């Protein structure tokens, strides 16, 4: 691993992780696998989370010093 | 009272008839919906019975399991098997012992089948049944915890120098027999995938642009050119407005073209040092959360020995384009999520 790339899993952006774990990786018909609707469900939650974080940051920036 | 004669009754009947006609369509629709619900319940019931029968048949421990300690059947005790990824059987011994699984307290178990081995852990089956699973997927904190645990196991394999074929989140089997069947039936595909990922890791390069900053940078450059050429515009107020509008559109086009060229160039430079490369869909702002547009979301399968070059390239790209409003984000090393076959035929 290169020096600059050293990072813990916790630093990995959730969106990058979700993209890989829900769009990539081997898909087989195990006894349980995620359906397209399930994947959409996760993205709805993810977007809600990110927009609420972004909104909080924006509010934070607008606060008078 | 007698005043309400035949005519009135007929009128009333007509009126009721009209009302009924108006409602009929709705009543039929409601009845259809109700019938559908009932039919679904009946089908579900029948399906449940069949599934229970099939599960009961499967949960009889296979004879071979008795001689193999790592294939203890879980299906009988209400556990399902979570599948993280597949490695070579010989490599599985290199992995640190007692890796944490997705469920608190559960450890990663290695299921071997010939030269292949699956990284798995037990999960309570009830938690991953249809409705319960949907509830979990609705809970982004649960999703994050689970996704990070899944990633942790695969990343441990990667940093241990073990080639690993990652599986998608929430790939579950009722019992270990299903996993053994997968390793047997899809062995060839899995070995091919292992050959692709061996000694390599996936890297992600995301390119963003702040279009306003890029527009300013391009305008500044143009202003310099104009001064050199000694160009000056004349004309009245009306033509000024039209000229400005036209210039605005042309500037917009230049920004878009320049951004697209930059994305192509970044991808091309990374592609040359990668064994394989792919462009995945760009994330919208509400997904990446930056005040900039994503132009490129490329993934690159790079030999672990060449990783140093990625950093060099990133530095060079930043030196060239940071001032023009471009932002770069390099992530990795990742297990090769984007370079394994995303679909395998059904295993019974």
How would you describe this protein?
The complex is a heterodimer of chains A (65) and B (348). With 65 residues, chain A is mostly helical. Helix content of chain A is 57%, strand content 0%. Chain A contains 2 helices and no strands. Chain A has helices at 14-23, 36-62. With 348 residues, chain B is α+β, with helices and mostly antiparallel strands. Chain B contains 10 helices and 9 strands. In chain B, strands 1, 2, 3, 4 and 5 form a 5-stranded antiparallel sheet that branches. In chain B, strands 7-8-6-9 form a 4-stranded antiparallel sheet. In chain B, strand 2 (109-113) and strand 3 form a beta hairpin. Chain B starts with 5 loop residues before the first helix and ends in a 14-residue tail after the last strand. The model of chain B is unreliable at 60-74 (pLDDT under 50). Chains A and B meet through helix 1 and helix 2 of A and strand 1, helix 3, helix 4, strand 4 and strand 5 of B.
Average pLDDT of chain B, rounded to a whole number, is 84
Count up the helices of chain B: 10
Number of strands of chain B: 9
Percent helix of chain A? 55-70%
Radius of gyration of chain A, rounded? 17 Å
Greatest interface by residues involved: A-B, 43 and 59 residues
Question: What is the succession of H and E elements of chain A?
Answer: HH
Structural class assignment of chain B: alpha+beta
Q: Return Rg of chain B in Å.
A: 32 Å
* Silhouette of chain A: elongated
Please identify the structural class of chain A as seen in this structure. Answer: mainly alpha
């Amino acid at each position: 691993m290169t020096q600059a790339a050293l990072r813990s899993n916790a630093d990995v952006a959730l969106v990058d992780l979700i993209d890989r774990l829900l769009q990539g990786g081997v898909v087989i018909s195990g006894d349980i696998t995620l359906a397209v609707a399930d994947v959409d469900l996760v993205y709805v939650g993810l977007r809600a989370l990110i927009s609420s974080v972004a909104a909080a940051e924006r509010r934070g920036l607008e606060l008078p010093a | 009272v007698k005043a309400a004669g035949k005519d009135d009754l007929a009128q009333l009947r007509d009126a009721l008839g009209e009302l009924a006609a108006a409602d009929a369509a709705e009543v039929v629709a409601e009845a259809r919906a109700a019938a559908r619900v009932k039919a679904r319940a009946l089908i579900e019931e029948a399906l449940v019975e069949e599934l229970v029968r099939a599960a009961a048949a499967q949960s009889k421990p296979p004879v071979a399991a008795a001689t193999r300690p790592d294939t203890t059947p879980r299906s009988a005790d209400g556990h399902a098997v979570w599948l993280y990824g597949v490695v070579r059987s010989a490599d599985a011994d290199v992995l640190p012992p007692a890796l944490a699984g997705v469920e608190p307290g559960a450890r990663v178990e290695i299921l071997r089948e010939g030269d292949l081995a699956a990284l798995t852990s037990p999960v309570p089956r009830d938690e991953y049944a249809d409705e319960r699973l949907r509830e979990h997927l609705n809970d982004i904190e649960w999703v994050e915890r689970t996704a990070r645990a899944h990633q942790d196991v695969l990343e441990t394999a990667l940093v241990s120098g073990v080639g690993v074929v990652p599986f998608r989140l929430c790939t579950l089997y009722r019992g270990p027999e299903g996993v053994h069947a997968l390793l047997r039936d899809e062995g060839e595909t899995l070995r091919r995938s292992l050959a692709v990922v061996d000694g390599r890791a996936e890297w992600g390069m995301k390119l963003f642009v702040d279009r306003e900053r890029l527009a300013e940078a391009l305008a500044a450059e143009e202003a310099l050119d104009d001064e050199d050429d000694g160009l000056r515009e004349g004309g009245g107020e009306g033509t000024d407005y039209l000229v400005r509008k036209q210039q605005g559109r042309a500037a917009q086009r230049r920004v878009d073209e320049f951004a697209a060229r930059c994305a192509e160039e970044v991808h091309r430079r990374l592609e040359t040092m990668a064994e394989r490369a792919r462009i995945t869909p760009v994330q919208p702002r509400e997904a990446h959360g930056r005040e900039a547009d994503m132009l490129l979301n490329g993934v690159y399968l790079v030999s672990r020995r060449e990783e140093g070059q990625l950093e060099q390239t990133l530095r060079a790209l930043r030196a060239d384009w940071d001032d023009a409003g471009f932002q770069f984000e390099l992530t990795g090393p990742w297990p090769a999520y984007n370079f394994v076959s995303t679909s395998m035929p059904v295993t019974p």
